[in-house]
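Hi R.,

As promised on Friday, here is the backbone we talked about, encoded as structure tokens. Could you run it through your design pipeline when you get a chance and send me back a sequence?
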């Protein structure tokens, strides 16, 4: 695909994957617009000046008028729908707000695309959490979504809505599912990678919310961005892929404790963590099979775990050394 000729709208551009994706699209020469809920000067999207190279629409996914104004004003060729409430804990405490953002926000966007930009390819960012609890691991795209907890259910609903629009209206929509994404710019300190680096840099003992035994996929953000770009190119070229989902994974699941050890190795200190063991509404083991993405999209991860964690460690070290950093 010639990205330099594409007009691309990104929701969730201020998030971890969103700001990396937006930066990459700009570097490829695309004309980029972003729908953002408010100005957060501490997000990387604003802190590094990405916003100054984009058309920025202020609005929320839950507001149909905001979504239609962005789509109608920009008329994109491709839409990356990353905007969501992305954390399990807040979803457990406030499920209604999570459902509004993740479910209502998705149907607002897809219906606006149906009416305003029906030819635009749409990549909907989902999660391994949509699969829910199953006796079959790793997760395959052929498995039904059978979520239970609020966050899982919000992502499962997102997937079903996307598949409904793709199949009913023959809309060029595809779904992406990843595990735990890490990398530079993530300031959600409740997550393992940023939270551990923050504590290590502060000279404190990091806290593990679980007992350290759950198995998870961990994937570097640049590999996810490449996966999203590959998905958009594929659905643009082949509308027969409408409604298809693609898993992105290194296919090397790690226990939380093993991942913690890798983070400490990247930092250069082996610090014993405080094990809270109190993570709730989370499944014991979750990891993905990415063979479909390898076969259909010709995608494969390019970054080893150590390389991704080294890059993240450097970013967090520089971030906390800055007097302007927000703790």
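Update: got your reply. Pasting your designed sequence below so it's all in one thread:
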């Amino acid at each position: 695909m010639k990205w330099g000729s594409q007009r691309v709208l990104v929701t969730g551009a201020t998030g971890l994957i969103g700001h990396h994706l937006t930066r990459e699209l700009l570097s490829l020469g695309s004309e980029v617009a972003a729908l953002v809920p408010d100005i957060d000067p501490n997000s990387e999207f604003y802190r590094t000046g990405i916003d100054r190279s984009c058309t920025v629409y202020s609005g929320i996914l839950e507001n149909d008028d905001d979504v239609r104004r962005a789509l109608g004003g920009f008329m994109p060729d491709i839409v990356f729908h990353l905007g969501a409430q992305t954390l399990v804990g807040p979803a457990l405490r406030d499920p209604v707000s999570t459902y509004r953002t993740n479910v209502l926000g998705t149907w607002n966007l897809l219906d606006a695309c149906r009416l305003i930009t029906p030819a635009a390819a749409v990549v909907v960012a989902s999660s391994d959490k949509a699969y829910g609890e199953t006796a079959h691991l790793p997760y395959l795209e052929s498995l039904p979504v059978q979520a239970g907890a609020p966050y899982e259910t919000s992502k499962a609903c997102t997937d079903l809505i996307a598949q409904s629009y793709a199949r009913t209206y023959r809309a060029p929509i595809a779904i992406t599912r990843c595990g735990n994404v890490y990398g530079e710019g993530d300031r959600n300190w409740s997550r393992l990678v940023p939270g551990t680096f923050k504590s290590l840099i502060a000279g404190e003992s990091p806290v593990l919310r679980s007992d350290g035994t759950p198995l998870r996929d961990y994937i570097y953000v640049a590999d996810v961005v490449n996966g999203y770009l590959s998905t958009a190119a594929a659905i643009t070229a082949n509308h027969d892929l409408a409604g298809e989902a693609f898993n992105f994974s290194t296919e090397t699941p790690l226990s939380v404790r093993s991942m913690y050890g890798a983070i400490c190795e990247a930092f250069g200190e082996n610090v014993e963590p405080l094990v809270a063991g109190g993570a709730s509404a989370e499944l014991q083991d979750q990891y993905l099979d990415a063979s479909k993405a390898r076969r259909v999209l010709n995608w494969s991860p390019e970054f080893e775990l150590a390389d991704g964690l080294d890059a993240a460690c450097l970013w967090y070290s520089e971030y906390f050394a800055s007097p302007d950093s927000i703790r």
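One thing I noticed while checking it: The chain has a mean pLDDT of 94.

Thanks again,
M.
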